[in-house]
Amino acid sequence: MSEKKVFVFGSFTEHETRSFFEQKPTKDPQNSKDKCVGSIQFGSLNLAAENSSVNTNGELKKGEADGTVKSAGSQERLDASRPASSDKNNDSDAKLPRKNSLRVPEHVVQNGIIKEISESNKSLNNGVAVKTDPIGLDNLSMSDGESDPVYKASSSKFQALDNEDFSSDSSSGSIQRKKNLKVPTESVPPVKDFTPRGLINAGNLCFLNATLQALLSCSPFVQLLQKIQLQDIPKADSPTLAAFSEFISELDVPSSSSIRNNVTVVEAGRPFRPAMFEGVLRNFTPDVLNNMSGRPRQEDAQEFLSFIMDQMHDELLKLKEQSPKVTASKSSVISSANDDGDEWETVGPKNKSAVTRTQSFVPSELSEIFGGQLKSVVKAKGTKASATVQPYLLLHLDIHPDGVQGIEDALHLFSAQEDLEGYRASVTGKTGVVSASKSIKIQKLSKIMILHLMRFSYGSQGSTKLRKGVKFPLELNLNRSHLVSLSNESLRYELVATITHHGWDPSKGHYTTDARRKNGQWLRFDDASVTPIGTKLVLHDQAYVLFYKQV
Amino acid sequence: MTLSRSSADDSTNNANRSYSAVAGTDNKRKRDEDSSDYVGVAESLEMLKKQEIDADHMAASAQQTLISWRSGENSRSLSSSGECSSSNRPESTRLQIFVRMMSGGKTIVIHAEKYDTVEKLHQRIEWKTKIPALEQRVIYKGKQLQRENSLTYYSIEQDASLQLVARMQSTEHPVAWQTIDDIMYTISRMYKGENLQSNINEKIVTFFAMIPVESDESIAKYLNIFSNSSVPAALVMLYASSLERNKSCAKSSVKLFLSNCVALPKNQKNYCLPIVLEFCKLLRKVCPDQKLYVTCRNTLGSMLETFDNPHGVYNDQYETFGVEIFPFFTELTGLLLNELAQNSGPSFCDFQKVSSFWQQLRKVIELKVAFPIPIVLPMQSTALEAEIRHLHRLFGSLLTTMDLCMCRVESSLADKEVGNSETMSSSWSQYLSILKIINSMSNIYQGAKGQLAVMLNKNKVSFSALVVKFAKRGDDHQWIFEYKEATNFEARRHLAMLLFPDVKEDFEEMHEMLIDRSNLLSESFEYIVGASPEALHGGLFMEFKNEEATGPGVLREWFYLVCQEIFNPKNTLFLRSADDFRRFSPNPASKVDPLHPDFFEFTGRVIALALMHKVQVGVLFDRVFFLQLAGLKISLEDIKDTDRIMYNSCKQILEMDPEFFDSNAGLGLTFVLETEELGKRDTIELCPDGKLKAVNSKNRKQYVDLLIERRFATPILEQVKQFSRGFTDMLSHSVPPRSFFKRLYLEDLDGMLRGGENPISIDDWKAHTEYNGFKETDRQIDWFWKILKKMTEEEQRSILFFWTSNKFVPVEGFRGLSSKLYIYRLYEANDRLPLSHTCFYRLCIPRYPTITLMEQRLRLIAQDHVSSSFGKW
To answer: How many domains are there within chain A?
Structure first.
């Protein structure tokens, strides 16, 4: 009985292969018609095989299993046949039939019951899995274009198959990961590339719109949002996370406009109102009654950015607290840090090394992206040096001195040594004030470095805005002198977004965002308006907040 | 100003951040609980550390002792011991931290305590840098620090580096926003149960002090801050909370707000009205039975009284405004109905609130309702439909209730006449005003005025009594004349007299006149016409030359005498009516004398002054003259008493059979009038080509109308105009010329000018006379009244005139005079003639021995020529 089964399947495979090789050299239109006829014949043969298997085994369960597999196979054939017929003159026409022929053995193998055949199936499966990915991507793009429910169903099945391959074998999973790494080199865009869409300003909301558009250009942050989107976020406990989750879902909806990757022409999606952030705004400014429409006043974009990052950090930690493992690791982190501090303090009097105090974030996904560490060292006359390590989310750069003409100058000023007035060596003692100096350097870099140029200040005339031009590069190479010590971290950063305040004084104005897309194109987001701009316009020297991504 | 504005910028957002901190409280508290386990471990480590420190410091102190001993300086020892004592502290709470500036590239050192608040940190920074605390933002570890939290809350430790940042913020009134933020923040904390000192009232005063005055638009924007921030809702919510402390605080804040609103100038107060209305709506939902709601509703009512800019404040929301104030009007009207039913009110204040709400509602209805007014019920869909239906029901209730009240008034008046000395109840004082509102409502609905007229006519006695008692000078009584049928003579007279200024009888203000009896008319003319109306408004001070007497009696005599001269036909100023010799109308022939038009102005002033001083001058006006003064048209029936012959002729012309009339060729009449004036005959055409136009049955009505007008009205047109001008001079300012006479019927004017029509009642006279030196039972008194009854009416009036300078008795009899009459005894020779003091209504007679002698003496003074002098004896 078993020999008969092997014989039947093997004979079909050989027959199909022979017919393919015979037809290939000719490449005539008439031959394509013959292919269609051939596919029909294959279908009828499968039906005959089904009947024979039922008759031989006499079990209903096996019959049902075979039926489902065959139905999936038949749909695949239909999908394969249509692109073949539509792309008669395409060069890839020769490749598609090969894939079709290869796919049939896969399903035949799946029908197998004997263990010997299953062993050989695994090796075949690995090879086939690698090759099926391009097919799925092509179909996905086609389904996007045609919006046919049949194609959508088939594309979802392809995804399901891919997932099955992932879960079935760990070795195949590793192969998939390597393939993902190669995707950029193949110039195939990832699945989650959002269409740029404007945000409607219903009244003094440009600070919100500008901040959101800038954050969307930080790919690690977007990945975090996609991860959050899959979770069920309680809106009452985590209003900020819920708002961002809804925001990403709104962006994920395909818009009617099609995408053309062209430097001069960009078709953006339909602008929408970020109404999901109403709760966040109410927490940000509880005194303002109408947060989304007819808002009576403007706000500082950097202040709002700090606020939502702070809120997200707290809400992410709150989600973590629901898991006992994370709690254990959290407490260990806190205790270890403090233990180190105590040890250094006790060693201090006996040695001449510096006393170091460390403050750090309780880590969250957000602080992993935007968070870094600064180390400040205070050197006082007659006493030992004192070092303090503390985290940062934004670097606030002073741009007021005349010597600051660009970002490099501001960073240099940031980490320059300065003298302290009124410093006391011992807080508990009655010793007098001594001369001291202090310097700050970066101990740990963040994946996304946010530079806040402090344009708003307070002078003898009251609140003022500094309209001075400050140059910033598209690629920023951090000077090693700004760092505490050498490390394996990359010092290269590339500009991904800027927020600009337009206006002459701090009591009024407008915010816009320049953001870079994955294909390197720069767009200006002015509330509901999305326009492409050149790098010269991006590098205007009036920016307020800069977003740099580590390369 | 710049500094203040900038300060508010920072404070506003810092207050905002306070709320966000509240949202994050749960997270932070949980983290604190997690870190509590570590605190125990830290304590044990700290103890070990302390032991080591103590050992180390003991060695150090020993060394310093040796050093000081070697140098022999005691001061070092003291310093050393101080250090030891401070070093022995278990743990220090002092912090030294670094704050990086927002500009200038400088870092400052701040010394603080661990448990200091961030607010205190801001103050230290301000002290060092002169940057106002409200202008600062401090960031540490990516967080912006909230003012009310402590440094420990943010885990700020030794040598921490903080960043100072400024901000941009756009708002037109930063200080106001900051003030409102503070209020909202305080309310929020109090509502959560925190025990803190409330500064809401101070903030409210600050908010009011900064209201702009430039333009309505800026006022509206400023006050919108209060509304947009939901302060009314927050305060009402605080008032409704269970904590008594919160309740009393909210109550005082709401009351303070209301009192500040009322104290504002008008243009600012207008824009506060929406906020007060919002308070009313909220309190009505939360606590409709409590005193605070009543206070708020009353404030809204008083503000509506002076609300004169609805279009500016509400613009296109005017209809909504009407809908929103209607529930309060309904509520107050319900209270009013209750008080009326129980005969316990309403007071003036209660009524004033209903009235102010109604005035605004009426404007809304007149402007917004699509249907023409009056409205026919049931109505189709329109604006304010439900309110208008409800209002109609209120009109019905008010009408029914007032009907009951008027019946009650009539019963009280009847009791009073019987002998009950009960005075008018004070609760009646607002009845007239309530009826006025009911009249205003009746303008809206068809048939409603008829219902009101029926009710008023049924209660005519009450209505008239209310008018006489409570209609005041300065109020608007025009609506009463729409129901003239429901008033009586006393009510109409009262309303007419309100048009005159009040006579004060202040000697400084009086217009003095010194008249020679022999030149009475000419001198009086010069005194009256030569004076300004203002001078005459103060009243008259009359004195005859070569006579000692002065006072109201002399004035009354002067009025009588000067009218006798004016209306003497010999002077050709006025003519008597043909049928009623007592009635006068201007003489058409008076135009011959060039000065006579001025005399008609003089006459108008004299008649007005006589009415003002309530003196009956005994002259009656002809009906035609009266109708012209009132600006009314003369009809055929009106000339019945003026010219009976002509009346009968015209009546025959109109009533003759048409065929017979035409067959006789219109009696040969044409449209002409034959007149005779000062001996000259003339034929006047009544219309163009009147001579050629024959009278027939079709145009005879027109002929009669034209004839009457040409015969009676046209000849005295100029004289009537002059009289009217003089009369109007004596009325209060801004009174229309014809309004006085329109308020009266001719019979009313008769009563005011001549008094009662009936002969003098001796019994009434006697009932109002008292005696001095005589007893009522003395025989001389008995003789006196017997003699008086035997006299003719003319002789009786002469005695009365001698006694009081009044020749005519008012319509209501002797009680209408200003005081009672008196008979005094003369203690002189028994055969003397009687004396009188007309100012005091005093007649003095000796104790006559016989009735014959008394009769002789009384008849002597009854002669006219004898009684017309003072002090010639």
So the answer is: 1
